[in-house]
């Protein structure tokens, strides 16, 4: 098939999809083909379920499209447990390729949350573990982490939220909130679930259509005079969201690994792939609709895309930055005569002590003897090589230097960290993170204590195409 034919097909899909969107404006994009995401809540200290990973052909926008689902859903079901609970999760692999699960955001042993495990097609594996009793309340998520194929599997739709209840849920004001979770994914009907053009893999594949919980512009209600606790999960393979709630105040209450000290007003919120945020919204404005916008964000490739536009305009997986409404927040009448108060304090974030060890990690692009083009400290990922050895309970500062001109969000598995500095300036807000956005040419210092678990775990760029192409390393905790 020639390039011209490919481009023409891509145009056809796009036109048909656009006309479908015009007809179904405001309706969930996938509502006719994918079940509503379900919630699975642990009871009596046990969260037990099966997840079947499966490719499905669904009719979307008049075309039959392949997508990857957990239990016939995209995104997968919302899982919910409490700190101290046992999780018994059987992953059934009905894909045509190996897969596995990463519990992104949980502080559990790397022997359980093991990205080196492969579950072959047709087989199943039961993950069983206890969430530590002192685990903070977090919005975490689960997704495949089978190296070399992570971007394709996640972009295909394999991801779901994992809510752990704990300390933050005990704050009295938060016990009166309504809750919603929005899983942010992007989608390209011509692309699922194949690999895109090599150029799109270099930049990190993106879809033109933005989905929240598998739908386009779903409605989330705000109780008038009440509080909405909104959990946001960026489950996209590469897309970085710059979010804004138009004409309405919103307050950050938690980041990747739990609560912050007090509700903090936000203007915009940048969410890189893998990052989560919890937001509190008070229904005290003029009743109406308030759009949650995904503002145009250039992760360092927008200029390049614009200059190459005639060539790549219809290349699947390469899309220019644009602004889109992700969801609509709509006021709903309630019984509250008086506005519910925001909590004045949440959970203190204790600063980690002065580090015993300081390291540098340089993120870059380059062709070296062992590199596929994406490197950390001049090396491409090798699953038989330990890159960094650390000691249990030791505090370290990692200076992460992005020498590339494009963004490389950095994720450390197993342990949480605090962001100390960005480009030499102290970070203004102390939070617990496991993924940090790092723009082109930025340097970020993170501080981490390797707690509770020994073993081998990984760190990597969370633009998953970059991870698949080598921007990952192994840390051994002993
Ligand atoms: Cu990257």
Short description:
The protein is 10% helix and 40% strand. The chain contains six helices and 31 strands. A hairpin with a 2-residue loop joins β2 (46-60) and β3 (63-70).
Q: What is the CATH T-level topology of the largest domain?
A: Immunoglobulin-like
* CATH H level, superfamily name of the largest domain: Cupredoxins -  blue copper proteins
Q: Estimate the mean pLDDT confidence.
A: 88
N- to C-terminal distance: 53 Å
Q: Number of DSSP helices?
A: 6
**How helical, in percent, are the residues?**
10-25%
Structural domain count = 3
- Give the strand order of the largest sheet, numbering strands 1, 2, ... along the chain: 11-10-13-18-15-16
Bound molecules: copper (II) ion
Biggest beta sheet attributes = 6 strands, mixed
CATH class of the largest domain: Mainly Beta
What's the total number of strands?
31
Explained architecture:
The protein is built from six helices and 31 strands. With about 475 residues, the chain is mainly beta. It has three domains: about 5-165, Immunoglobulin-like (Sandwich), CATH 2.60.40.420; about 180-330, Cupredoxins -  blue copper proteins (Immunoglobulin-like); about 355-475, Immunoglobulin-like (Sandwich). The strands form six sheets. It has a six-stranded mixed beta sheet, with no helix packed on it. A six-stranded mixed beta sheet has the order 22-21-24-29-26-27, with no helix packed on it. The protein has a five-stranded mixed beta sheet with strand order 1-4-9-8-6, with no helix packed on it. Strand 21 (about 355-365) and strand 22 (about 375) form a beta hairpin. Mean pLDDT is about 90; it is low at about 1-35. Copper (II) ion binds near residues 408, 461, 463, 466 and 471.
